[in-house]
């Protein structure tokens, strides 16, 4: 694997070539990755996989015309052909008055923050196999588990670099580790499946594989005998592993593209009360060893922790340079860049701050409601905010979790849901987007 410094040189070399070929401006991305994955099933090794790759992406500007190309062929001849093709394409592209690199005066300079995103050593395949075996053994050892879909362990390393023709060069390395298990409880038509997983930048921060396996088994067994929900209007409580999707709908609605295209249910909501007053949502790209931490954004701008929602108030859009120009605003440091194409936007380590109540207190006064652990389907309209998803979980009866339920639908409108949302105090950072358990009043539940 190349070092970040070597990756930076690869990206900047492509930018230099573009300038020599006639581009007025350019930026380039270099990405290299390697990953090893091991899967087991029923106590036997099922698969060992290794993937490696290096890719370069180039975006060039000729006036206000631009084009993007990418390649995994890094030979000198391929680079020359890539640059020539990109410049030729840009000359024929339509003009875009908003296109261009990030403002020069906003570029990040100086040493990037130390985010501790890379392990010094990665495990050997036999170590990954043993980890996966331990996870599956623990899952299969839970009483009521009848079969296994398998367990897996993986490790990866990557390096990413960005260079621009107007003065930015930066790069960083990351590693990733994960363990997962998926098992089946029950038999015949009564079978239920569930899973558990954990991912971390550092292997030392992973949950024990036995804990992951046991959780997968317990979750599957708990779903046995699922009944149906009665229809009605009632509180719905979202488990953290599904509640994070509520923030995904928010970030999509406040992205620069959605706002410039006027295709968002939050189009006129900036500076207004969007959530309940007790809700604050933050984005922290500087979280040490965070799964989505980064020292700079996809255009070379510095990044910093920011409150997207503060005490219920929507404080910012998520803007790259192009959408910021169109709106007459400043980019927010949320640009995200893949190998191909122009930047989009993305959050980093996005989370909802915890509330003050334990989960037991959050549900204690619910006479009839539902605790959702699984969402099914994509019935969310980002333009209107209408929300309808299939779901499974557990009935809430007289302030307690009761029998498992499945085959029902929960529905509402996202803006009304946000304003009726109360967070519990159980926030844990386990994914790129994290929320505590949340309760939403007055949702429509349609039983099967």
Task: Tell me the quaternary state.
Answer: single chain
Largest sheet: 6 strands, antiparallel
Tally of contiguous helical segments: 10
Structural class: alpha+beta
Poorly predicted runs are: none
Number of domains: 2
**Spatial strand sequence of the major β-sheet:** 3-2-1-4-5-6
> Helix fraction?
10-25%
The topology string of helices and strands comes to HEEEHHEEEHEHHHEEEHEEEHEEEHEEE
Kindly state the number of beta strands.
19
How far is it from the N-terminal to the C-terminal residue, by CA?
A: 52 Å
Into which percentage range does the β-strand content fall? 35-45%
Q: If you compute it from the alpha carbons, what radius of gyration comes out, rounded to the nearest whole angstrom? A: 24 Å
Mean pLDDT: 96
Assign an overall shape.
globular
Domain Metalloprotease TldD/E central: 125-224
GO biological process, one term: proteolysis
Domain Metalloprotease TldD/E N-terminal: 36-90
InterPro entries: Metalloprtase-TldD/E_C (IPR045569), Metalloprtase-TldD/E_cen_dom (IPR045570), Metalloprtase-TldD/E_N (IPR002510), PmbA (IPR047657), TldD/PmbA_N (IPR035068), TldD/PmbA_sf (IPR036059)
Commentary on this structure:
Residues 125-224 form the Metalloprotease TldD/E central domain. This is Modulator protein. Residues 231-447 form the Metalloprotease TldD/E C-terminal domain. GO terms for molecular function: metallopeptidase activity. It comes from Sphingomonas endophytica. It is a single chain. Strands 3-2-1-4-5-6 form a 6-stranded antiparallel β-sheet. It has a 5-stranded mixed beta barrel with strand order 7-14-15-16-19. The longest helix is centred in the first third of the chain and has 17 residues, at 4-20. The chain has 2 domains: 4-221, PmbA/TldD superfamily (PmbA/TldD fold, 2-Layer Sandwich), CATH 3.30.2290; 226-448, no CATH class. Strand 1 (25-41) and strand 2 (44-62) form a beta hairpin. The chain is built from 10 helices and 19 strands. The chain is globular, with a radius of gyration of 24 Å. By secondary structure, it is an alpha+beta fold.
């Amino acid at each position: 694997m190349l070092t970040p410094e070597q990756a930076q040189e690869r990206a900047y070399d492509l930018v230099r070539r573009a300038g020599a070929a006639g581009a007025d401006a350019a930026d380039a991305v270099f990405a290299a990755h390697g990953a090893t994955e091991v899967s087991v099933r029923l106590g036997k090794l099922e698969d060992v996989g290794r993937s490696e790759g290096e890719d370069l992406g180039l975006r060039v500007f000729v006036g206000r015309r631009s084009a993007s190309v990418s390649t995994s062929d890094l030979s000198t001849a391929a680079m020359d052909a890539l640059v020539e093709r990109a410049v030729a394409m840009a000359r024929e592209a339509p003009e875009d008055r908003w296109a261009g690199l990030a403002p020069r005066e906003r570029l990040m300079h100086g040493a990037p923050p130390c985010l501790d995103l890379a392990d010094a050593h990665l495990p050997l395949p036999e170590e990954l196999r043993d980890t996966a075996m331990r996870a599956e053994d623990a899952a299969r050892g839970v009483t009521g588990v009848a079969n296994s879909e398998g367990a897996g362990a993986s490790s990866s390393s990557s390096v990413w670099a960005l260079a621009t023709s107007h003065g930015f060069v930066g790069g960083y390395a990351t590693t990733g580790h994960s363990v997962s298990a998926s098992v089946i409880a029950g038999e015949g038509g009564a079978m239920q499946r569930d899973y558990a997983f954990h991912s971390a930048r550092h292997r030392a921060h992973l949950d024990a594989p036995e804990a992951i396996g046991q959780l997968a088994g317990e979750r599957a067994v708990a779903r046995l005998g699922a009944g149906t929900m009665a229809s009605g209007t009632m509180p719905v409580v979202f488990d953290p592993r599904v509640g994070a999707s509520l923030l995904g709908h928010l970030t999509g609605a406040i992205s620069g593209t959605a706002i410039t295209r006027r295709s968002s249910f939050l189009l006129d909501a900036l500076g207004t009360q969007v959530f309940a007053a007790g809700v604050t949502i933050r984005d922290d790209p500087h979280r040490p060893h965070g799964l989505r931490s980064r020292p700079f954004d996809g255009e070379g701008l510095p990044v910093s922790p920011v409150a997207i929602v503060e005490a219920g108030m929507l404080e910012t859009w998520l803007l790259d340079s192009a959408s910021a120009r169109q709106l007459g605003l400043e980019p927010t440091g949320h640009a995200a860049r893949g190998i191909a194409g122009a930047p989009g936007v993305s959050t980093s380590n996005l989370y909802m701050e915890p509330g003050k109540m334990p989960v037991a207190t959050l549900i204690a006064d619910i006479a009839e409601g539902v605790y959702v652990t699984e969402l099914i389907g994509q019935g969310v309209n980002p333009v209107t905010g209408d929300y309808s998803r299939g779901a499974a979980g557990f009935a809430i009866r007289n302030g307690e979790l009761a029998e498992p339920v499945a085959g029902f639908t929960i529905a509402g409108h996202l803006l009304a849901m946000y304003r009726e949302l109360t967070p519990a105090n159980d926030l844990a950072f386990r994914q790129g987007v994290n929320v505590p358990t949340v309760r939403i009043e007055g949702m429509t539940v349609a039983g099967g």
